Amino acid sequence: MTASIRDAARPFTGGTLTALLPRTTRLLGLGEPTHGVEAFPELRNEIFRHLVEHEGYRSIAMESDCLAALTADAYVTDGTGTLDDAMRHGFSHGLGASPANRELVRWMRAYNEQRPPQERLHFHGFDGPLEMTGAASPRPALTALHDYLSAHLDLAWSRETLDELFGPDERWTNPAVTTDPTQSVGRTPEAKELRLVVDDLRTLLTAHTPHLTAATSPDGWWRADLYARTAAGLLRYHAGMADTAPTRVGTLMCLRDAMMADNLGAIVGREARRGPTLAFAHNRHLQKDRSRWLLPEGWGPLAGRTLEWWSAGAIVGTRLGEQYAFAATTFGTRGSDVPQPDTLEGRLSALPDTRAVIDPVRLAAVLDRKPTPRVPTDHTYLPLDPATTDQTDAIIFVKEI
Question: What is the mean pLDDT of residues 82-103?
Answer without folding.
Answer: 97
